[in-house]
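Batch manifest, entry 17 of 40.
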Amino acid sequence: ARRFIHVSDIATGILSAVGRGGYEIFNLAGSMLISLGDIIDRSAELVGRKPEVVERNPSAASIRNPESSRARRELGWEPTIGLAEGLSSLLTHQEEIV
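Output type: structure tokens
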């Protein structure tokens, strides 16, 4: 699982920090942990297909869970694009390319 975040939310977070003095570090991360299974299930709904997924090593879960409360508190920043909207936007851009 990861705290996936849409590129538009990253850009907004960066812009929120512009003009601050000194050197500071802010984590910009999505508001919730999203598993690969969540992405596969939601993507399958969007494209109308059901892929076959084989988990080869379920005991070796990889989780990245950065904390972005400082960015929320000091920058007033909050991610706004959730999984469904983010995946839908990818489909829209993919259709424009094809």
